[in-house]
Amino acid sequence: MIAILKYNAGNVCSVAFALRRLGVDAVVTDDVVVLGGADKIIFPGVGAAGAAMAYLREKRLDEVICSFQKPLLGICLGMQLMCSFSAEGNVDCLDIFSQKVRRFDDGECLQHVGWNQIKQLSSPLFKGIAEDEYQYFVHGYYAEISARTIAVTNYENAFSAALQRDNFYGVQFHPEKSGPVGQRILQNFLSL
Amino acid sequence: MGLTKRLIACLDVKDGRTVKGVQFESLRDMGDPVALAGYYTEAGIDELVFLDISATNERRKTLTGLVKRIAREINIPFTVGGGISSIADVDALLEFGADKVSVNTAAINDQSLIENLSKRFGSQCVVVAIDAKQTADDWLVYKNGGTVATKIPVTSWVKTAQDLGAGEILLTAINNDGTKSGFANELYNSISPYLRIPVIASGGAGNAQHFAEVFTQGNADAALAAGIFHNRMLGVPALKQFLLTQNIPVRI
């Protein structure tokens, strides 16, 4: 059973539709027991990090995520919340990935919106995906590059387009909204 | 190549059918929106916008059933607009598969709508659509589907919208709409110094060169078109190939 984690910062519908196009009927839930028993969890998210972290802690969803032993995929804000700290609201996050989340900064808050290329791909998540393929991004904060980085994208600076540590995966882009290439990445996750 | 320029197809929908007008009038039927959405996604369009153009005037809620049928089909970003005036409206649309919403008249009548929506759903979700008409001395904002003039200069409204939390600006030049004579490049270029959020140019696309011009001369981040795509005058793959020859980065 594939579970999509439902919380106060998710637009879960797009992810659910994308999985259905791949023939998978996912369960959308915030029930810690159901999530704990899932074969895989997708942790989506759009919105602000501070409010999202407070909600995850209040509902004890943070413990479910961090103790999950099977493949888990954070998308966009979901991936950022898996890092150690976010400058968006100056909030401590789940610390699955040790790097911090910073703001694209030229003195003003800059948004990275649109299709950009992913490079230096190094994970089973990208099986069959060529270097420099385009994915859809929409974010104003980014995760730094570290040893956990499995894909890099350049905007104002190079940043982690994707991260992996053991069974934990995160992508900054939206595979559910990124055409056939994004669909293949989701399929790769389902096949892990 | 890095971040690309985006090509967006717009489905203006009235009574469940795709329509297209000239300068917002004399609407013609352009087909089934669900079929068109699938066709554009296959062709490689970067994004889709769905506007229920009857919504504000006829005080109807956006056709959520149709939104869901389109959202199920397509795997690219999907913006929905038309008659949106509350958090509840947006909640419903996101529930049916929209990724972003566009607000227009309601945001002019009550600016706090932009702030409330961006706080609740995030800026990335809020596209502020603006219909602009060139008058003797300035580009002014029009509301209610381009039928009601305001005294607000476009430059001032885009800055306000950005400060209130808009994630993108969709700016339609009514003078150019449906004329196929090119985008209002000077309008887009004039607002770009004030904006750190993307601007989507709309109105006037007639050929591939017009798209190149709005990206280079107009400095737009994305270009939206309807009629020229619907009647298959210009195919998306051919347009993208042309833009690449002009050294304009696009997704292929």
UniProtKB/TrEMBL annotation, chain A:
The active site is at 76 (nucleophile), 174, 176. GO terms for molecular function: glutaminase activity; imidazoleglycerol-phosphate synthase activity; lyase activity. Pathway: Amino-acid biosynthesis; L-histidine biosynthesis; L-histidine from 5-phospho-alpha-D-ribose 1-diphosphate: step 5/9. One of its GO terms (cellular component) is cytoplasm. Residues 39-190 form the Glutamine amidotransferase domain. It catalyses: 5-[(5-phospho-1-deoxy-D-ribulos-1-ylimino)methylamino]-1-(5-phospho-beta-D-ribosyl)imidazole-4-carboxamide + L-glutamine = D-erythro-1-(imidazol-4-yl)glycerol 3-phosphate + 5-amino-1-(5-phospho-beta-D-ribosyl)imidazole-4-carboxamide + L-glutamate + H(+); L-glutamine + H2O = L-glutamate + NH4(+). It is found in: Cytoplasm. Keywords: Amino-acid biosynthesis, Cytoplasm, Glutamine amidotransferase, Histidine biosynthesis, Hydrolase, Lyase. It comes from the Bacteria. Its EC number is 4.3.2.10, 3.5.1.2. Pfam families: GATase. PROSITE patterns: GATASE_TYPE_1. The keyword Zinc-finger does not apply. Its main location: cytoplasm. GO terms for biological process: L-histidine biosynthetic process. Heterodimer of HisH and HisF. NCBIfam families: IMP_synth_hisH. IGPS catalyzes the conversion of PRFAR and glutamine to IGP, AICAR and glutamate. The HisH subunit catalyzes the hydrolysis of glutamine to glutamate and ammonia as part of the synthesis of IGP and AICAR. The resulting ammonia molecule is channeled to the active site of HisF. This is Imidazole glycerol phosphate synthase subunit HisH. It comes from Taibaiella soli. The gene is hisH.
UniProtKB/TrEMBL annotation, chain B:
It comes from the Bacteria. Its EC number is 4.3.2.10. One of its GO terms (cellular component) is cytoplasm. It holds the Pfam family His_biosynth. GO terms for biological process: L-histidine biosynthetic process. Keywords: Amino-acid biosynthesis, Cytoplasm, Histidine biosynthesis, Lyase. The keyword Amino-acid biosynthesis applies. Pathway: Amino-acid biosynthesis; L-histidine biosynthesis; L-histidine from 5-phospho-alpha-D-ribose 1-diphosphate: step 5/9. Gene3D superfamilies: Aldolase class I. It is found in: Cytoplasm. It catalyses: 5-[(5-phospho-1-deoxy-D-ribulos-1-ylimino)methylamino]-1-(5-phospho-beta-D-ribosyl)imidazole-4-carboxamide + L-glutamine = D-erythro-1-(imidazol-4-yl)glycerol 3-phosphate + 5-amino-1-(5-phospho-beta-D-ribosyl)imidazole-4-carboxamide + L-glutamate + H(+). One of its GO terms (molecular function) is imidazoleglycerol-phosphate synthase activity. The active site is at residues 12, 131. Heterodimer of HisH and HisF. Belongs to the HisA/HisF family. IGPS catalyzes the conversion of PRFAR and glutamine to IGP, AICAR and glutamate. The HisF subunit catalyzes the cyclization activity that produces IGP and AICAR from PRFAR using the ammonia provided by the HisH subunit. This is Imidazole glycerol phosphate synthase subunit HisF. It comes from Taibaiella soli. The lineage of its organism: Bacteria, Pseudomonadati, Bacteroidota, Chitinophagia, Chitinophagales.
